[in-house]
Design a protein that fits this description.
Shape: elongated
Number of strands: 0
Oligomer: single chain
Structural class: mainly alpha
Length: about 220
């Protein structure tokens, strides 16, 4: 029995329409139809989701004829490697984006700190740009459940980055002029921590709600 037929039979036994299955699997109805007609193969993530959605084992979904089985397993291995590669790239892009915005905020201030708008700029960075950046990054990490338990370290890391961003405030300029040492504003530590923690928790909440919806469809 071909893979498409196995998938179609499993969906029918679960008493789901193609539209319902597509919504639960986060794909289009046409994609489901293509899988069942053998026009395309589902990737490894979709196979796992179908296994949960249709309440069948992965072995059952992959129990096709031997000739097709080998080619499909090769395809799954390739698609898994692609998913892992894309996941690593996404993490790298996120890290570079956060560090880039943080670094540019510092650099831009030191290029403009003598101007009349220095105070306004520092306020915008401290209370808008950086909080939004850290919250968004934490939200993505939570929603995708990246790094496992280590994701909770995001909060203290971003908290420290937010606190040291006091270097972009107008008081730093005074320190440069007076040749004195300006310490980070440690009062911002809990603020940065809460901002990042909120992002992670909201991301996880949405992830769990989406999983719950899929279970309800089952």
């Amino acid at each position: 029995m071909e893979i498409g037929e196995l998938i179609r039979n499993a969906r029918n036994e679960a008493k789901l329409s193609q539209e319902q299955a597509a919504e639960a699997l986060c794909v289009s109805r046409q994609t489901v139809s293509n899988w069942e007609n053998g026009k395309t193969y589902p990737d490894i993530i979709s196979v796992i989701r179908m296994s949960d959605l249709y309440s069948v084992s992965l072995d059952h979904l992959l129990k096709e004829e031997k000739s097709t089985k080998q080619s499909y397993r090769d395809y799954l291995e390739e698609s898994t490697n692609v998913v892992r590669s894309n996941d690593r790239k996404s993490k790298l892009i996120l890290a570079v984006a956060v560090l880039g915005i943080w670094a540019l905020a510092l650099i831009a201030f030191f290029l403009t700190y003598k101007g009349a708008d220095a105070a306004g700029y520092s306020l915008a960075v401290t209370w808008a740009v950086l909080p939004v950046t850290f919250f968004t990054a934490s939200f993505v990490i939570g929603k995708r459940n990246w790094f496992g338990k280590l994701k909770w370290l995001t909060a203290p890391v971003f908290s420290v980055m937010y606190t040291t961003a006091g270097l972009v405030t107008a008081v730093t300029a005074d320190g440069m002029v007076m040749k004195s040492v300006i310490w980070p504003d440690f009062a911002k530590l809990p603020i940065g921590f809460v901002i990042s923690l909120a992002g992670i928790l909201i991301g996880l909440l949405i992830r769990n709600q989406n999983a719950k919806k899929q279970n309800e469809i089952k």
